[in-house]
Specification:
Number of strands: 0
Strand content: under 5%
Helix content: over 70%
Order of helices and strands: HHHHHHHHHHHH
Shape: globular
Length: 341
């Protein structure tokens, strides 16, 4: 049996890729600062390129952008941090009363439910469904807590992420050219087109969605302050974080506010729900189309499917990564078909 050279090359390439991804899996916990640094560089690169087109050298463009961002973080972040710490202190003080009030509401609902005239078999089925929903919710909350703990644990690595992003931004063109030289010459042009399409998709998902989430967070915080609901800043930050998850994120982000409002009064709960509905309508019909548009290139049903699949495979992180990976996979398959055919 004669083994062709192309077969040997493909085998070697596959072996190298498998070994590379296995190595990445082994050291995955040490990659957080590099991943965040790469994400920061990717988000800031369009601004740096814009300043370059205005006549600034790339190094000075990066320095000016960093000074501007650090100024915002130091001036605005210090006041925001003070408010956040104050809200967290009040939340810690009120937590026992909130838990007790929630238990009272749950006991009242349970008593009304047990005294209802529903058939026993139906009540049994509802009890089992509620138990499963409670377990799922506990797991989801546990994943959120673990994610926060992991972020705190990797705080030193997170602190050096801006430094890594600075070097990535400074050497952006050199890194791109060296990566292109690694690719085989006959595939190079197609790979360039592939990465351009990926950049177009990710600019909608990453840059666009994060921008939309920040706008939603500000609107929710301001709205809750006007409604005089406690812990408006904490809820606003949570709403911004969950808004990154397509379709289901806004519902999850609204849940804490609705729960706290119903403990105050039913009328406040109605006002909070109306506020979230209005914000989501503005986001869906005005903000989202203007900032993101149709760059994702996935049907809404496909997006929902991959959010579910990502949540099943990787929990909260999987829900966040499911749609971007699906969009990249779609672009990859389109280019592979083009090359093979």
């Amino acid at each position: 049996m004669v083994i062709s050279k192309s077969y040997i090359k493909i085998t070697i390439i596959i072996g190298i890729l498998v070994g590379f991804f296995y190595f990445i899996w082994l050291v995955r916990n040490a990659l957080y600062p590099f991943i965040i640094g790469l994400l920061l560089a990717y988000m800031l690169n369009p601004i740096v390129c814009y300043l370059e087109r205005k006549g600034l050298k790339r190094l000075w463009a990066i320095i000016i952008l960093y000074l501007f961002l650090f100024g915002i973080v130091i001036i605005g972040g210090s006041k925001l941090l003070t408010l956040l710490i104050s809200d967290l202190e009040y939340f810690a003080q009120d937590l026992p009363q909130i838990v007790a009030r929630i238990n009272e509401v749950l006991i009242f609902i349970q008593s009304q439910y047990q005294n209802s005239s529903l058939p026993y078999s139906l009540r049994l089925a509802i009890d089992e469904a509620l138990l499963l929903a409670e377990n799922d919710m506990q797991q989801f909350i546990g994943q959120i807590v673990n994610s926060i703990i992991n972020i705190a644990r990797n705080s030193i690595g997170l602190a050096i992420s801006p430094i890594l992003a600075f070097y990535l931004l400074h050497d952006w063109y050199e890194i791109k050219s060296k990566l292109l030289l690694i690719l085989p010459g006959r595939w190079r042009a197609e790979w360039v087109l592939f990465f351009r399409d990926v950049d177009k998709v990710l600019s909608g998902i990453i840059r666009g969605q994060l921008t939309v989430a920040c706008i939603v967070g500000v609107c929710v915080t301001a709205g809750l302050y006007l409604l005089q609901l406690k812990f408006a800043l904490i809820i606003g930050i949570l709403a911004a974080m969950f808004d990154v998850i397509p379709y289901f994120g806004p519902i999850i982000g609204a849940a804490p506010a609705v729960m706290l409002a119903i403990l105050e009064s039913p009328w406040l709960m109605v006002k909070v729900i109306i506020m979230f509905v209005v914000i989501q309508q503005i986001e869906g019909n005005i903000i989202h189309p203007k900032i993101i548009g149709e760059n994702i290139g996935l049907h809404p049903l496909t997006v929902i499917f991959f959010v579910f699949v990502g949540g099943e495979v990787g929990g909260l992180i999987g829900m966040l990564l499911g749609v971007p990976l699906a969009a990249i996979g779609k672009v990859f398959m389109r280019h592979m078909v083009k090359v093979l055919l």
